[in-house]
Amino acid sequence: MAIDFRNVTKTYPDGTAAVENFTLHVPSHTCTVLLGSSGCGKSTLLRMVNRMIDPSSGAVLIDDNDVATTEPVALRRRIGYVMQDSGLLPHRRVIDNIATVPRLTGASKADAHRRAQELMEIVGLDAALARRYPKQLSGGQQQRVGVARGLAADPNILLMDEPFGAVDPLVRVELQRELQRIQTDLRKTIIFVTHDIDEALTLGDQIVVLKKGGEVAQIGTPENIVEAPANDFVAQFLGLDSARRSLKAAPREGGGWLVSDGRGRPLGVVDSAPDQQHATD
Amino acid sequence: MEWILNNLPRITDLTVAHLLLALPAVAAAFLIAVPVAWAANRVRPLREVLVSGTGLLYAIPSLPLFIVLPIILGTGVRDTFNVIVALTIFGLALMVRSAADALDSVDSGVRLASTAMGYSPAKRFFSVELPLAGPALLAGLRVVSVSTISLVSVSAVLGVQSLGSLFTDGFERGIVPSIAAGILLTAVLALLLDLLLIAAGRVLMPWSPGGGR
Ligand SMILES: Nc1ncnc2c1ncn2[C@@H]1O[C@H](COP(=O)(O)OP(=O)(O)OP(=O)(O)O)[C@@H](O)[C@H]1O
Ligand SMILES: [Mg+2]
After folding, report:
1. Which of B107, B115, B117 is best to mutate for the A interface (most A CBs within 10 A)?
2. Domain B2-204 indexed as CATH 1.10.3720.10
3. CATH 3.40.50.300 given to domain A3-238
4. What 3-state DSSP class applies to B76?
């Protein structure tokens, strides 16, 4: 299911122009990351897809159908939505939280629970947590429940608004890996919002770097963007200007290379670079 | 104590009468306050008017209201319906504000998530907002319940039977234990009802911090 933003503009009633004339093609079965700093209109764009927000002008199309012609409640039930702080229902147990959308669309409780149990396994949640309330889980576990809930109705489209923004860096990396693994199997059309460049580079098949007002600074693959930032804004966002991504490698005594960034901060070790092997031949 | 034991049948009757006045009023106040509060929150400009307006009802002195209402309702002064309506009005005065605040306090992230998942507005209200407002609604309901139980006694002055009658009779006939029992039993009844509400909260809202598990 491809998503198209066609010249969308959103002006809030108070006059804030959150998004101006934004156009983007989101290909099926891939993950598109909207990357930009706070207030640049990422959430506004995301919420236009499931009609939480209607554009002031322009249109959002899913497989060439204007979403404005679809009844919002029905539309939302077939689009997964995962947000920061997971937005779990505090009064429902984990299993019931995950089963929410199937229940809304009329699945029996038994079927919905069976499906929820499958999903708990998919997102790496211990089955023993099923009967807990969200507050009795760690932040990372809550986010996993959020992801499971977003996937429960087996939607073709998954909207993720800084889903891992509120967890510590280690858990965050773990959740990103988990999402990559899930995506390899399920191949959803994902729009993923973040302001974290590393997260964008990890998850994006396509990255859209945004300036204020939803202005596109660059669209490209992670490789494109790192190799050839289109302008100073993108370079700055990547941290290229502060030498964070111009790497140097120094040979190590026992073989291999020590890699550091432009400021000399050690980043890691390369076991044996190909040209070193040539050198010792 | 001895006086209470000697007059047990009468006290039991009065307690039942007391509850029959208080409970319908508490229930009615709650059931009316929730939709009013919902409307007040929906139509923001109306909120202060509705919330403060109903709050001001509490400033009406209770005795005159008990006497004026029958004229409006066309009932007798000693009609229990008259008393229940008056008590409901006082209950509303307390409950509308706390219900409006309770419904308002539901986490906006949870609201957003429910909408995003595809709850229709009505379904979202009954399955998400109302239950999540539960603990705060219960807090308001407890205040209304205690206040109503104690207000019922005032109607004894009009001759409507309740635990307040122990108080009025005691005064008229100079029976001190009767006055004491009236005060004591009203307090005990209010306390018991409060405990019952707390217990109901635990059972109905096991997820809330005050709730069981
Ligand atoms: N309901 C609203 N009414 C008025 N202005 C709004 C509303 N929602 C968002 N805005 C404004 O629109 C702009 C874009 O907001 P949006 O939430 O889309 O940003 P964002 O990129 O998601 O930011 P963040 O990373 O902080 O979540 C901001 O300037 C914001 O203040
Ligand atoms: Mg946002």
Report:
1. B117
2. yes
3. yes
4. coil
